[in-house]
Design a protein that fits this description.
The complex is a heterodimer of chains A (about 290) and B (about 250). Chain A is an all-alpha fold and about 290 residues long. Chain A contains twelve helices and no strands. The chains are: A mainly alpha (about 290), B alpha/beta (about 250). At the A-B interface, helix 8 and helix 9 of A face helix 2, strand 6 and helix 3 of B.
């Protein structure tokens, strides 16, 4: 492409006219595109082919195939796992909404400046630091086993609810930072303009600053939700029954075969890949 | 003489070590347009932002219709609702269309019902030559159109005074005229205004009074012909001579 743009073919007659040169450039571009596609196809075949060959010819392959790619076991276990996955989806959807609310409240609290809000502001900062710093899996353990351990009446003891709370706490901290970045990205002139037309600080935030902040953080939020969707599997470790990963583990132990785990992985991918593509398109659209 | 609409008395303002306003006195009467000229950094913008209470003054007083507005007990929101500030960089709300940019203040700050506010806003848009632009996003407009929307937005709430902060400085030269025409239109209606500007010929034409700000002091103020043609103060002369040499006056 560069060649056709920067260095006009010296053998071509210069007097050919603009139309000729345009046609020539188009033909050169077409040829270069086709060459590019051929190279891409060839290199894909080489890479994928050698990886496959390497795997299939490895000494342990027959056992691995038996333990991980057993179609019979796959079809046997898949319906139960798929059904269990429905719980993952529901937990994801509830936690997602809770995370959006918690994250926003924490971010808004941290942007306040009034002295009266100081304790809350400090609490919000400590929360964000603490819960972003602790591994999610640890939080799931701590909440899942710690809260029932308090034996206080009124606190939930259902593992699925406790797991959801742990995920909300963890992701709420991340998302509050995403919102905060969004709020900071809105030019200060926007708040001033809102005040200048007579809005209160709160109205300026609600009608002018926040809507722009939320728009700017759509893609990073979606990115966090892709991560959350996968991490729902963590609630399996505190004994949530009927969850996809847990169900796959059960099936795995029945036959001492890992194929059910692959089935669960497939289900997560079915959700996360479209989300990832959606994210790509969204971000491309914004750059435009 | 009647109470001035805006009165600034011995106002000082520092940002850290930098003294931006070193005791400003200024009176703006009803229907009067005061142009503030002076080099960048002389304090014009800061003064306007102090009057609109976007910046807190250090010392002195500012009065609006005879009432002090810089007292801590005064609600700044109520004061800003009586003033209209237009920014150099327009600062339109990019997530709202042109019409909603104007109705936001009318509905939320002044409690006018949506329908009436829209009617009002359309009237103002038409007045500034922006009919047919109501549903567009500000980003689709030229700089001159955007600044006219910003003027319409500030004027939409019928303020006691308009504060125009270098409203043409961010514009391409060929777009300056249409914005100045909008300001001229306000002047013709008798709107009380303070205009911070770099456009000397415009100051001469529209303003009743021209004040020259130099390093945080209002060193000279008077009729445009006098200040711009026969300045008595050395800094004013120097400033105008430099503009003349640059072909800007």
């Amino acid at each position: 492409m560069e060649a056709s743009k920067e260095h006009p073919d010296s053998t071509a007659p210069r007097a050919g006219g603009a139309a000729d040169r345009r046609a020539e450039r188009a033909a050169a571009k077409h040829a270069s595109d086709r060459r590019g596609a051929q190279i891409a196809a060839l290199s894909t075949i080489v890479v994928v082919g050698s990886l496959t060959a390497l795997t299939v010819t490895s000494p342990g392959w027959p056992q691995v195939r038996e333990k991980f790619f057993n179609w019979e076991i796959f079809w046997e276990s898949f319906p139960d796992i798929a059904q269990a996955f429905w719980l993952d989806v529901r937990v994801f959807m509830v936690v997602e909404v809770a995370v959006l609310i918690v994250g926003l409240l924490v971010a808004l609290t941290r942007t306040t400046t009034t002295p009266a809000m100081f304790p809350l502001r400090m609490l919000a900062a400590v929360y964000a630091d603490l819960f972003r710093g602790v591994p999610t899996i640890l939080l799931v353990y701590l909440v899942g086993f710690g809260v029932p351990g308090l034996a206080l009446s009124g606190l939930p003891t259902e593992p699925v609810i406790l797991g959801g709370i742990a995920l909300t706490l963890s992701y709420g901290a991340y998302v509050s930072e995403v919102y905060r970045a969004g709020l900071r990205s809105v030019h200060p002139g926007q708040r001033e303009a809102a005040l200048a037309v007579g809005l209160t600080e709160r109205q300026a935030m609600g009608h002018v600053v926040l809507p722009q902040a939320v728009r700017s953080v759509g893609p990073p939020l979606l990115n966090d939700f892709i991560a959350l969707q996968k991490d729902v599997a963590l609630i399996a470790i505190i004994g949530v029954t009927g969850e996809a990963f847990r169900q796959a583990q059960i099936a795995q132990l029945e036959d001492f075969n890992y194929t059910p785990l692959l089935g669960a992985a497939l289900l997560y991918l079915i959700v996360t890949i479209p989300l990832a593509r959606l994210l790509d398109r969204w971000e491309r659209g914004r750059v435009r | 003489m009647a109470t001035p609409v805006i009165e600034v008395r011995e106002v000082t303002k520092s940002f850290g070590e930098r003294e931006v306003l070193k005791g400003i006195d200024l009176e703006v009467h009803e229907h009067q347009a005061v142009a503030l000229i002076g080099a960048s950094g002389s304090g014009k913008s800061t003064l306007l932002r102090c009057i609109d209470l976007l910046v807190e003054i250090d010392d002195g007083d500012i009065f609006l219709d005879g009432d002090v507005i810089t007292d801590p007990s005064v609600d700044p929101v109520a004061v800003r609702r009586r003033l209209g500030l237009v920014f150099q960089a327009y600062n339109l709300f990019p997530h709202l269309n042109v019409l909603d940019n104007i109705t936001l203040g009318i509905t939320k700050a002044h409690g006018v019902e949506r329908e009436n506010a829209e009617e009002q806003a359309r009237g103002i848009l038409a007045r500034f030559g922006l009919e047919g632009r109501a549903d567009e996003s500000p980003s689709n407009l030229s700089g001159g159109q955007q600044q006219r929307v910003a003027i319409a937005r500030a004027f939409g709430t019928r303020p006691r005074a308009m504060l125009l902060d270098e409203v043409t400085s961010a514009l391409d030269p060929e777009l300056v005229g249409e914005v100045l025409a909008a300001v001229r239109d306000l002047k013709a209606e008798g709107v009380t205004m303070i205009i911070a500007t770099h456009e000397m010929s415009f100051a001469r034409e529209v303003a009743d009074t021209v004040g020259f700000l130099h390093e945080g002091r209002l060193v000279e103020i008077g009729a445009p012909e006098r200040v711009l043609e026969n300045p008595t103060e050395v800094p004013t002369r120097r400033f105008l001579r430099r503009l003349l040499e640059a072909g800007r006056a």
